[in-house]
Structures are given as structure tokens and as C-alpha cells.
């Protein structure tokens, strides 16, 4: 049975119909991961064997998990030497849910250390390469997860998105990645970066796989006071009920975007119109403000959340923090310190209110907003050193949704002249992941994402 | 010393006796447990752990605020207070900064030596989590997190105290209030109530400086730690320093420590110097306070709102519903007992401070009034009080015992005086060595003599009468 | 462009101390530069009028989220689990160099 390129949904059917056994599926992906990891470096830790005795929807399905989810008994590092030998004595809510559903933990994927970045280069375990071109970044911070899916080392993965960390590498690696509404998925057990921004989410080859994983991950958690009691709809059935949508485009999001991306986006806009949807111009606040809001608030929260790593109860001491982590901790500490709180943190939180209101107002008029989600396609390794806040700049188009807490997906819409994937984001109203999936699914049905996902893994057949 | 007046404010921490901790479901009762056997990802500060607040702890904090006549804020939140110390697992304490549950309260204490009650301002009442416990041994410090994240209510008073005695009085009353609310053992010796006074001295007749008072009225250079940043004190000139004293483990220690401090500070001021703004510890063995660390550099706690916990909004109705669950408070009981039972002030105090005893008392009186026989006994309310306070041991205070003693005639009745005289003579002649000891100063033996007489009389006498006669005879 | 917030060497050292971060002498200048550049960028927020705006201290509109008082064993660690990741343990307690 040739499993190459099968989506999770397809694998589930094969397993159910007994065309392939779970151990075979495990062996297939474990072998691929082990072999290919040497070149791509997607994983920090690979599991030796399957071990889940639960049976459920995900029985026999190996999933790659970003290394900031605490997985009980399995080393968890957040790609930082501070946590080099940390073995969590407890399980995150999300992975516990996946466990109950029968999944197999394939491996813990590489990331920017502490999720600080948009390249995966700040990892203390070496950078992950972009499967499309091993001389380029996969994007970040969930770069390991994105690369694993793009090169078909795993049929699906989970990551976290704080300022674009799922959407950005999904765009650069040519896969489907969703940042859910803040509070849609529990953060309990996810190593905190920006507490008011962190969103765990699925990264997959197809929209249906994505919806299926979200279905399992989502829901109120008594251990996370910020998790939402809003009912979790049946994403897959709502996704397949074709809707005619009113879609907004913000020209503010075209600023500084590479020509190839702009062209691909405009082509997509034409297609969407042809598909029968209403496309209108909307006016959104400039992403430049979101960069500032996000940089200040996230770094302040980071400086606070990383205080616990003192080497006493677990971990190595603070001398093990890398450059980027130290930089962010320093900036965060400064903006919270006596005399500066009002000028920076409080002001950022006020502008954040403006951003939220801006989106709320816009969504009273349109169902969804689309736009490019990265200004450039995958950069060559070495290019990011120039920027003191590279991560935040690279994620400028993703940060508005992060600041507001609304959901957004990245889907592939073509390749650029360098044969690198181009992503497009679809932003939705609070808790309207269904609306996002609806359009994404329609586009996928219509275009198969221009075979981007397929082409991405071809090299690794 | 009389040219100065003390300026004392208190910071009190009360450990709540909720079942579980403040932000997780570990036991709030950590006493006697093996180290680090009462922790979970949340209270030990594991990566990825998140806090969820305990509803009961919040309600109890509000109750304490209401008992102290505070305004309960309709909108409240938690904030992170940052500092690094091994007993603080997250490197921040979840506390409350500018939107505490309760503010702007007061409490009146009545010092028996003074004519009028003294009003003490209660600046704020807020909720926070406790830290782990440190043990210093040899070259190491050991850390146990069993206590980490137990709920603590912090009560801050205005610097309205001007004597150590008033502080002790207030602490005792606060202890009683807390026990009435049944939210904590409030035991200073056990650590469920902790107290730190901030002490300074001010000239009784300060030179006029001509400085206008800033908004909020404070002229101290440094903010009064614990007061809300919005200000809220009385318009006063406060001294430009204050000394915090730690490690005070009882009401008595509090008085002694403050008394010592006041003398120490006066001596420095007399020299024309200003006492250092610092934290000092109290050593009861030596009876002194000693310098611990300089409070000169105020901590930069980098407070910001706790993003992991949504804010709390209360309606007037919800706040009122909590107020309705307040039991009768000590001051109310004091008034009611005085009026209803016409007891001596000391006896009233006994009942105010002993909740269980007062329950038994009221239950007994009610029973007596419903019984045609018993209700005939004269002076029964004071008599019952006498029995409970003076005759019965604390662990035998039950209605049945009391009634039986009342029936046996412990209350004033016609005593066989002739018999009593004879018995007294006999007892005295049989106890000559004890009489010697008594006359040498062991006056406690009088109780022994009374007991002997009562035994011989088989209880058929008024012990107070016996006491009076013996006292006269032994002169 | 508004005036850059220029951090001094003392500023950097003070921040590192507050943050309990060991930084090397020769890295101070780079921190000065990096931090100042970032702070300069975020000054763009001064272009917006937020005089009548409330700060969003929380991302959701949730309020009054509590748990009901009551102990549960579900998440409780054994002493072994609580201490298994520590480098220095004595009698089930975490060890640090003696304070004071």
C-alpha cells in the first residue's frame, strides 16, 4: 500500500477499511521522519515506537507536535538549551485530547526557541530547512511542524500561533495552517510565550484535515480560564455546506508586498469573484500599528513568562538563554518597568482596543477578510540577522489578527518565480472558523491549491 | 518620647482555610505534609501551567472587606507582581494592584483606657497567593512548595495607630472577626495570620514647612507601600521614613516589638538624625529589632494585569448577597449581649471572643427561659455566665452540665450558714501547711481551700460566699 | 521621526538586573543598539489618539471565570514527579545556595 501523499482523512479510511494497519502507518512515517530529519531537521525528538492504547478517531494516525506542548514522559524543550533535559510530568490539554482520540505522537518538532521568531533559526538545535529549497528558512516559529507536513514526514502536525507562527511557516512551506480564535483551543500545557496571544492550532495538507483536527482540539478547558465556552460547531459539515460570502480586501495589507505575491493574490481575487462571491474594499488600520502593539505587549508577557526558568525546580539556569530570548526579555522588562508602563504597555493595550474595534466594525459588514500574509516568500538562510525585531517585522500582516484575537488561516495560492510557495490569509470574525473553512474548502475544491501541496512533497517521494 | 507621636500602619496577611489552593485544586491545608507532596503543575510553576481562581477565596476576601466596612469594587482583577526569589515559582506572585476587591474601609477600636473609640482606616483588602517555604541549613537553603499558592488575604491599614497597645487591641479584634467569619484560623503562632507594622515617629508639633499638600495628601517622598496608587489617606503630614518590622509571631510580640522600635527611633531622632528606611526583624529572646535589609531601593514589581485570568465584575446584587451571609460580627454581638443579658463587660468580652461558648450560653438561656422551674432561679443570666466562665473547664461547656450545676444551686441560695462555718474551720485546721504557704504569698491556694469546703458541703453552698469568708479569715 | 529613545549602558545593566539575566560586558553595546532601535519603531503608536480608549488587558470578553473550592487529586504530583527534573534535591526539597 503506497501511503505517499495521503491526507489524514484518507489514512483514517484506509485504516478503518483494514487496507493498512496502524503499525504499518507508524513504520512508514517514523522511517521517513528518521531518514529525512538529517537533512531537514524538523524534529528535536523522535519517538521510538507507537504507544497509545486508546482507540478513537485518530487511531493509528501519527502527528508531529511542536516542541512547546508539554507531553508527559517525552522530552519537551521549546527548542532551547534551557530545557535541554526537561521531561514534563504532565500532559497539555490539547495533546491529551489527541491522545484520547487515539493519535500517535510521532515526534516533537523544531521551532524558534521559545517561539521567538519567524525563521526557526533561533532554535538551539539547529535550524530547520525549507523542504522546497534547503538553502532557505521554512518560516517560524512552527517551522519544524510546517516542514514535516510539507515534506510528508508527517501527515499532519500541530503548532502554535502567537504573532503568525502557524500562518507564516504554512505560507513559506505551502501547506494549510490555522490560527484559531484566541480562547478557542486550550493553552494549558503549552509553554507560554505571549499569554494574551498564544493560539494552539492545526497544520495540515488539506482543509478537511485541518477542520478535523480543530474539532478535536477545540473546546472549553476548566484548566484554562481564558478558554471559551462558545459551543464548538461541526466544522466539517459546516465547511461543506457551500455558502456565498461577502469578502473584504484591505489595500493597507498590500504595502511592502513582493510583486509575485501581489499578482498571485490579485489572481485569487478574480477567481473568488468568478466563484460567485461578493468582493469589496474595506479599510483596516495599518499593520504598522499592529507591529508596535504586538512587539510591546508580547515581549512584556514574554519577559514575565520566562521568569520561572531559574534552574531550581527544573531546567538549566538563565545563562542558557539564547540571544533572541534575552533580547525579548530585556525589552519586555523595560516596557513594564517603573515609569515606562504607561508609555509603552498601557498605550499598546489601548491601541489594541482600536484594532479590535476596527475588526469588529468591519465584520459587521463582511463575512471574511482576505489578503497576503507574508511580504516575501521564503528567505535565504542568513538574511534575518539584519533585523533587531525580524520576527515581528516579517509577521506584520499576521499580527493584526493576533492582536485582535480573531481566527485566520493560511492557504497556498501558487508559486513565485523562484518556485517558492505563496500563501494567502483568510481572516474571520471571532469564533467563525467555519466561515474561514468554508471559503478555504471551496478554493481547494476549485483549484487544489494549484497543486502546491502536491509539488512540495514530490521531491521527497 | 512625648515630643513624638507614633505613626503606625499595619500590613496583615490572613491565610484562608479554603479546601483548595488559590489557583489550583491542591490542598490548602499543607500542614505536616512531606515536602513537595502537595503540588501540581500550577502551584509549582511548571512550564505551560495556568491559574484559575478559587471562587470561595474571592467571596471570602469580599466578606472580610465588608466586615471592615470597605467599599467593594464592582470591577476587580488580578495582577502579576514580579520579583525573583527561590520560594516564588513563577518569579511573579499573582496579586492585586490597582483594582483590589475592597478599599476605603474603617474599623473602630475601643481602648478601655480611652473615652472615645478610635477609627482606624482600612486602606484595602485584596487577595494573593502564598509562596513556598524556605529552610536554611548549613550551606544550603531548601525549598518546599506545599504552601505555594495557598490563598492569602492582605489587609492594609492607614497609618492611623499611635500606640503599640492599640495595635495589639486591633489585632485581637481582627483575629476575632476573622474567626467569626470562619474563613481562617487567623493564628499568629501557626502562621495563618501574619503581621508587619510600618513604624515611624512624628513630631507632635512639627515646624511649619509651608509646603502645600499634594493630591491625596501625602508628603512622604516614597509611596506608602500597600496604599493604592490612587492615594486615599487623610490629609496629613507624614514622616519622611518608615521602618517595617518582620517576624512577629504573636500579639504580645507585636506590642513588644513596636515599643522597642519607638524607643529606638526616638533616640535617633533626638540626635537630629533620621532613622534608616529599612526592614528589621524582631528577636523576642533578646527583645530587640535588628536590621535585615534596606528598603531604600523600592522594588520595581513591574505590575501588569494577569492575562491568564479574566476580570471579575460584580453586580450590586451579588455583592449584597455576599453581605447577607455575614454572621453577626463581634462589635454587633458585644452590643447585643450587653443589652440583652446585662452582663459585666468582662463577661461580655469572654463571650465575644469565644464563639462556641456564646452559642452554648444563648442556647442554655433560651432553654432555661422555656422551663417553668429553671426560669424561677434569680439572677440566672449572670449566674449562668459565672458557671461557664469561672466554674466549668472550657471543654465541659455544654448545656446539660450547666443546667445541672444551676439546679444544684450554684446560684445564690440559702446556705446552711452554721454548717458552712464548721466546715470552714475544719478545712483550715486540716490544712495548716497550705495556710503557711498561702500567707507566704501563694495566694492561688485560696481556690484550693474553697474547693475543699465545697467538697465537704457537697456543693450545697455559694462558692462566692465561701470565698469571701475564707479571704477574711486568712487575713 | 520622533527622537529615538537612547538607552544608556546603565539602563541596560539595570534592565538585566531586574530581569535576572546574566549578560556579558561586551554584549552591552549591542543590547543598547537593538533595544533602542525597537523602541524607536514602536513610537509610531504616538500617532494615534487613544485619549478616550480603554486598555484591552484581556483578549476575550470573558468575566468571572472560577473553579469551585474543593481538592482534587487529578493533577497532584507525587514528590518524585515534582522533583524529577531538578538538578539538586535533598530530602525531597529543592536546593539552592544558602540565602542570607
Low-pLDDT residue spans of chain C: none
Query: Would you tell me which CATH topology of the domain at 1-47 in chain C applies?
Result: Histone, subunit A
Proportion in helices of chain C: 25-40%
Kindly report the average pLDDT value of chain C.
Answer: 92
SSE class of chain C: mainly alpha
Enumerate how many helices of chain C there are, as a single number: 3
Q: Largest interface by residue count?
A: A-C, 54 and 48 residues
Q: Which percent range describes the beta-strand content of chain B?
A: 15-25%
Radius of gyration of chain B, Cα only, in angstroms? 27 Å
Radius of gyration of chain C in whole Å, from Cα?
23 Å
**How do the strands line up in the largest sheet of chain C?**
1-2
Strand order of the largest sheet of chain B: 2-6-7-10-1-11-12-13-14
Helix-strand makeup class of chain B: alpha+beta
What is the C-level CATH assignment of the domain at 1-47 in chain C?
Answer: Mainly Alpha
- Helix fraction of chain B? 25-40%
List segments of chain B where confidence is low: pLDDT < 50 over at least 5 consecutive residues: 209-235
The CA-CA distance between the termini of chain C, in Å, is: 49 Å
Distance between the termini of chain B: 43 Å
Q: Could you describe the 3D structure shown?
A:
The complex is a heterotrimer of chains A (461), B (475) and C (100). Chain A has one domain: Amidase signature (AS) domain (Amidase signature (AS) enzymes, Alpha-Beta Complex), CATH 3.90.1300. Helix content of chain A is 37%, strand content 13%. Chain A has helices at residues 8-16, 22-40, 93-100, 143-150, 167-173, 207-217, 235-240, 259-274, 287-305, 323-336, 342-363, 390-394, 399-404, 433-447, 452-458, and strands spanning 43-46, 62-66, 104-109, 156-161, 176-179, 199-204, 246-250, 278-282, 368-372, 408-415, 421-428. In chain A, strands 1-3-2-4-6-5-10-11-9-7-8 form an 11-stranded mixed beta sheet, sandwiched between helices. In chain A, helix 9 (287-305) packs across helix 10 and helix 9 (287-305) crosses helix 11. The radius of gyration of chain A is 20 Å and the shape is globular. The two termini of chain A are 14 Å apart. With 475 residues, chain B is an alpha+beta fold. Chain B has 3 domains: 4-324, no CATH class; 330-410, no CATH class; 417-473, Arc Repressor Mutant, subunit A. Chain B contains 13 helices and 16 strands. Chain B has helices spanning 55-67, 164-181, 251-270, 316-324, 330-341, 345-353, 355-370, 380-391, 399-410, 417-430, 432-440, 445-456, 463-473, and strands at residues 4-15, 71-72, 75-76, 79-82, 92-95, 102-109, 118-129, 133-137, 140-144, 151-157, 193-203, 243-246, 278-283, 288-294, 304-305, 312-313. In chain B, the strands form 4 sheets. Chain B has a 9-stranded mixed beta sheet. Chain B has a 3-stranded antiparallel beta sheet with strand order 5-4-15, with no helix packed on it. In chain B, strands 3-16 form a two-stranded antiparallel sheet. Chain C is mainly alpha-helical and 100 residues long. Helices cover 30% and strands 7% of the residues of chain C. Chain C has a two-stranded antiparallel sheet with strand order 1-2. In chain C, helix 1 (9-18) crosses helix 2 (28-42). Chain C is flat and about 55 Å long. Chain A binds chain B through residues 68-70, 76, 78, 83, 86, 88-90, 92, 187-192, 195-196, 222-226, 300-301, 304, 307-310, 312-314, 333, 336-338, 341, 345, and chain B through 40-41, 44-53, 80, 82, 84, 86, 89-92, 143, 145, 300, 302-304, 307-310. Strand 9 of chain B pairs antiparallel with strand 2 (93-97) of chain C.
